[in-house]
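Morning, I've got a small favour to ask if you have a moment. The fold is given in discrete form, as structure tokens running alongside the sequence. I'd be grateful if you could look everything over and explain what you see. No rush at all, and the record is pasted right below.
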Amino acid sequence: MGTFARLLLATLLAAVPAQAWWGHGHGILTQAAVEALPEEMPAFFRQGGETLAHMAYDADLFKNRAMAQLNNGEHGEHFFDLELLEGRPWPARRYDFIAFCAEHGLDPAKVGTLPYALAEWTQRLAVAFAEYRRWPENEAVRAKCLVYGGMAAHYAQDMVQPLHVTVDFDGRKKSDGSVEGKGIHERVDGVIEKLELDPAALAAGATVEAPADLMVAIRAQVAESHAQLDRVYALDAALGEKEIPPQGVAFARERGQQSAAFLASLYLWAWNASAEVKLPGWHQR
């Protein structure tokens, strides 16, 4: 490799910050969710696993320092530092949350906006599904459903990764000033891909049920993931081993099944909700 090529490669690598589950991990988890979908979902969507998995990578690609405004807007969409809220109940809508942060002296960019990113992309999918119900043969509408579904997949999977819902996302400060688990985020992010988990096996362990309320389900998942933090830190050494031991494999499989079930349930919610979406009278495809 020539000097220019090496410099170019270094620049590109520096431009893209660390992401959530490694890219192929997002692909595995998306395929698992699609395989878990019930037959009441549209056939094109159930058959679109490869495309949905492709789209699930994109939210991390948007965190590119060469795109200053995009990177700035996207960064906070991938985490939610729950401890900063100090137990206060958080609003269901993005701008209400921004006002809530201002009221309590919090910076929403530092707290993160992952729940809102996930809710909004899931609702975009519901609107696209409403278009599909009216124009089921329209290829552009089908494509849009797969794009929106892939974006929702990424944020749902981030939410199931416990280190995305805590201030201790890459190490815990101890009373003596030392840091426990520095670098843990990368080790957890890589485990799905390293183990090459089978999407079909993850789907087989997933229970899929559309939530009655989207934000209630999202709040519940934030709480479920946050409750896993002690377990994650206890597994840190195991996840860093070249050959991941059984307890690390069990953790990865459990998170994979939870991710598949959560995302598939959101997809089912979007499909069911789409039946109630009223498209404007002027809208034609």
About this structure: Residues 56 and 154 are 5 Å apart (CA to CA). Residues 1-18 have pLDDT under 50 and may be disordered. The chain has 16 helices and two strands. The first strand starts at residue 172 and ends at 173.
